[in-house]
């Protein structure tokens, strides 16, 4: 492990421990002895620019341009986040006045675990409602100046944007967005959306998921990004803060059973191992992601540290997205691995390559190719549509587009990582 990686992980551990024990320690970093460029890159990829800068006491940094850039962005992003948090408060207050269902999860709830909420920078706010309250919730957003982004909205997630606050709201009708498949059915059976509670945040009473429901959702959200395009360390940082704060309130039996039913337990074991050993998660949390004893799982436990570095490196660089690649182009290939719809020939390279060129209906993007989803006979039309999109995008972005072979190579690399991580057998 290089020096800067260790320093960055020590910074995250310091932040988690500060939150857990009420400390206000800082990691001292000598700007002349450490590569600040690399530290800053880790902070950017992890989307923790504000939180990490807040935890560092730089020395010999006055003349370092990266230090100034880091300081500038930490201030600017923090200020924007204050405005977004205020905008979110207005939405929730209006929804409460209208007696409208608005369940907040992720961002606003997790931000309360940071030293100050604005240190957790988020580009959007997630709100869960239901179809019965759809019209009232939409009315609240529009009255507050939010405009629907039709081209970015899906059937189960509407995107609304307020230009004044640079604030995006994702209005969810389903926690799993538009994904369908065997694993989504398991998630539906858990009924996370019925496990809610009222809490005080920013001086107002809001409805959110219960601690165990939130933790299961956080693990799903991590798995989703990890499979489709790559996740970053912010997912683990948030989870470590959350578990340390609410450990005694979490229904661990429900969490453990959920991880087993979703076949996430081996991956969760690796993630908890990283959080405990590198990020300040309390040690006894490992007891809730134990692998069942058998010759096979004993072999997994013995070799788990062999894959930790690989997983950690992928998280540090943000996976496919962190490579600066066209991660969205991987969605059609990788989505079946998330939803549990991979077939027996998933290891057949030729078949996967053909599926990239001639995708089945279930592998098509629901928003862009909605017509083929509704009328499968239009699948050939969707293929032509897809090829034309590829050509036009290639012309505009030149090297920013994967060919079928490049997609296959990127997918093979991702699939190998999923197998090593225990998410794919």
Keywords:
about 425 residues; alpha/beta; 7-stranded mixed sheet; two-stranded parallel ribbon; about 10% strand
Task: Give a written overview of the molecule.
The protein is 55% helix and 10% strand. It has helices at residues 3-21, 36-45, 49-54, 65-97, 107-111, 134-143, 182-190, 211-228, 233-246, 252-261, 265-278, 295-317, 319-322, 331-339, 349-357, 370-374, 379-397, 404-421; strands at 27-30, 56-59, 103-105, 124-128, 147-148, 157-162, 167-172, 196-201, 204-209. The strands form two sheets. A seven-stranded mixed sheet has the order 5-6-7-4-3-9-8.
What is the count of DSSP helices, taking H or I runs of 4+ residues?
18
Largest sheet: 7 strands, mixed
Helix content: 55-70%
Number of strands: 9
* Uncertain runs: 322-326
Q: DSSP strand (E) fraction?
A: 5-15%
- Provide the spatial order of strands within the biggest beta sheet: 5-6-7-4-3-9-8
Mean pLDDT across residues: 86
Lay out the secondary structure.
Elements: H1 3-21, E1 27-30, H2 36-45, H3 49-54, E2 56-59, H4 65-97, E3 103-105, H5 107-111, E4 124-128, H6 134-143, E5 147-148, E6 157-162, E7 167-172, H7 182-190, E8 196-201, E9 204-209, H8 211-228, H9 233-246, H10 252-261, H11 265-278, H12 295-317, H13 319-322, H14 331-339, H15 349-357, H16 370-374, H17 379-397, H18 404-421
Parallel strand pairs: 1-2, 3-9, 4-7
Antiparallel strand pairs: 3-4, 5-6, 6-7, 8-9
Helix pairs in contact: 1-2, 1-9, 8-9, 8-10, 8-14, 9-11, 11-12, 15-18
């Amino acid at each position: 492990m290089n020096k800067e990686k260790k320093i960055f992980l020590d910074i995250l551990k310091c932040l988690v421990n500060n939150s857990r024990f009420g400390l206000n320690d800082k990691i001292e970093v000598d700007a002349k002895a450490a590569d600040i460029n690399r530290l800053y890159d880790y902070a950017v990829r992890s989307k923790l620019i504000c939180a990490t800068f807040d935890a560092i006491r730089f020395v010999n940094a006055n003349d370092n341009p990266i230090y100034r850039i880091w300081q500038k962005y930490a201030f600017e992003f923090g200020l924007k986040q204050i405005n977004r948090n205020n905008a979110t408060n207005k939405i929730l207050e209006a929804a409460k006045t209208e007696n409208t269902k608005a369940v907040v999860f992720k961002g606003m709830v997790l931000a309360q675990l940071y030293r100050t909420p604005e240190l957790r920078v988020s580009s959007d706010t997630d709100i869960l409602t239901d179809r019965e309250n759809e019209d009232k919730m939409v009315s609240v957003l529009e009255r507050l100046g939010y405009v629907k982004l039709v081209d970015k909205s899906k059937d189960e997630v509407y995107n609304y944007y307020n230009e004044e606050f640079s604030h995006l709201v994702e209005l969810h009708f389903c926690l799993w967005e538009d994904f369908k498949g065997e694993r989504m059915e398991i998630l539906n059976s858990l009924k996370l959306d019925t496990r809610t509670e009222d809490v005080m945040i920013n001086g107002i009473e809001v409805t959110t998921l219960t601690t165990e429901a939130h933790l299961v959702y956080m693990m799903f959200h991590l798995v989703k990004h990890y499979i489709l395009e790559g996740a970053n360390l912010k997912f683990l940082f948030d989870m470590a803060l959350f578990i340390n704060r609410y450990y005694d309130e979490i229904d661990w039996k429900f969490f453990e059973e959920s991880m087993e039913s979703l076949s996430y337990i081996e991956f969760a074991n690796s993630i908890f191992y990283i959080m405990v050993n590198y990020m300040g998660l309390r040690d006894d949390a490992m007891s809730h992601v134990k692998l069942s004893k058998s010759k096979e799982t004993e072999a997994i436990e013995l070799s788990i540290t062999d894959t930790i570095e690989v997983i950690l490196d992928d998280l540090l660089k943000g996976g496919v997205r962190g490579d600066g690649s066209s991660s969205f182009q991987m969605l059609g290939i990788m989505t079946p691995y998330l939803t549990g719809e991979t077939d027996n020939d998933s290891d057949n390279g030729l078949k996967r390559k053909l599926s990239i060129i001639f995708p089945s209906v279930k592998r098509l993007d629901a928003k862009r190719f909605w017509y083929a989803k509704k009328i499968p006979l239009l699948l050939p039309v969707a293929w032509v549509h897809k090829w034309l999109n590829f050509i036009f995008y290639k012309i505009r972005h030149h090297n920013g587009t994967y060919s079928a072979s490049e997609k296959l190579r990127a997918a093979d690399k991702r699939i190998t990582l999923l197998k090593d991580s225990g998410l794919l057998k």
